[in-house]
Amino acid sequence: MTAEPVLVIGAGVQGLTTAVVLAEAGWRVRVRTAERPRDTTSAVAGAMWGPAMLKPADRVLYWVTRSHAEFTALARDESTGVHLATGRMAARFDLGDAVPPEARLIPDLRPCRPDELPAGFASGYRGTVPLVDMPRYLDHLVARFQDAGGDLRLGPVNSFADAVGEASTVVNCTGIGARELVADPAVHPVRGQHVVVRNPGVDEYFIELTDSGEFAAYMPHGDRVVLGGVAVEDDWTRTPNPHVSAGIRSRCAAIEPRLGEAEVLAELVGLRPGRDSVRVGVEHFEGARIIHNYGHGGCGVALSWGCAYEAADLVAGLDPTRTSDE
Ligand SMILES: Cc1cc2nc3c(=O)[nH]c(=O)nc-3n(C[C@H](O)[C@H](O)[C@H](O)COP(=O)(O)OP(=O)(O)OC[C@H]3O[C@@H](n4cnc5c(N)ncnc54)[C@H](O)[C@@H]3O)c2cc1C
């Protein structure tokens, strides 16, 4: 184990994954988090690995590719909360033949036959992807981090001046909190809401491909199904809206009628950390180094392992080409 300590701020999927990579590589790591892992935005996510239409495009392609390999391996052990599921990605318009480059990672991807599309949908694809039951998965990451000797502490970090008093290498994985901690106005909330229901026997996922802020999505995780979705820019409201829940349920029930009658177990809100470009890079601050890893929008789970490995490389000084990231 190295003597040099690293402080990771944040215990969502980015903070915990980065902390696991560092701790398992032998670094002495402390995580400080304002919220318990199960209270973070990450715990609210659906969550599905899938193509991410974010910037910087070349890095995003590398991050999702690396993450796909990790999640596929994790799916061999169900206790991680990750499993492989088949389902449909469909649109109410013609998607055409062009698919994003990451889609080639989906081994059985094929266009839907017309009889496989729900009413009102014009085109879509079927394929098998990793689904992540986030509350269980975050528990898995915490256990893995602690098994590797990591130290997880609850409590906010008020400034980087405080943080660098604790360690000369700090990894900033604060999600929407980066808006305040970094004073980065580019970070903004994209509000999401989910309805979690008892699983009436659904084992396939469905996701509507659209630019609209209202869409249909459902993801089964054993005895529960997570229903979405909404994406509302610049909305900080953290309480569930019953009208939004009703809309989510009716859109999902139109595709899978059993979801319309299923018992509601929870309604959850999460603030996706929107940013024009994901930020993974180094900032020098009062003689210390801050490694930023935030701004993953609606794809933070899908990007998590790739970003974590890149942040860990930056901690180790292994990637001198990426000292600036703006
Ligand atoms: C409804 C919904 C559905 C989604 N579905 C998917 C999906 O299917 N696939 C996918 O890839 N992504 C999905 N996402 C996006 C994904 O959830 C986010 O991109 C991801 O959770 C961001 O992770 P994070 O660790 O950066 O942030 P967070 O999970 O928000 O964690 C931030 C951490 O930083 C801590 N923190 C913040 N400020 C401070 C401070 N000053 N001091 C100490 N700690 C601090 C917080 O307490 C928290 O621990 C979805 C999001 C939502 C809301």
Automatic annotation (TrEMBL):
Organism of this sequence: Saccharopolyspora thermophila
| Presence of the UniProt keyword DNA-binding in the record | no
Q: Where is the FAD dependent oxidoreductase domain?
A: 6-314
Which family does the entry's similarity section mention?
Belongs to the DAMOX/DASOX family.
Could you tell me the EC number(s) of this protein?
Answer: 1.4.3.3
Q: Which reaction does it catalyse?
A: a D-alpha-amino acid + O2 + H2O = a 2-oxocarboxylate + H2O2 + NH4(+)
The cofactors named for this UniProt entry are:
FAD
Q: Any idea which positions bind D-dopa? A: 272, 298
Keyword Repeat listed = no
- Keywords of this entry: FAD, Flavoprotein, Oxidoreductase
- Pfam families linked: DAO
Residues that hold FAD according to the record = 41-42, 157, 174
InterPro entries, alphabetized: D-amino_acid_oxidase_CS (IPR006181), DAO (IPR023209), FAD-dep_OxRdtase (IPR006076)
Q: Which residues cross the membrane?
A: none
GO MF terms here are: D-amino-acid oxidase activity; FAD binding
This chain's protein is named D-amino-acid oxidase
Q: Listed GO cellular component terms? A: cytoplasm
- Give GO BP annotations, semicolon-separated: D-amino acid catabolic process
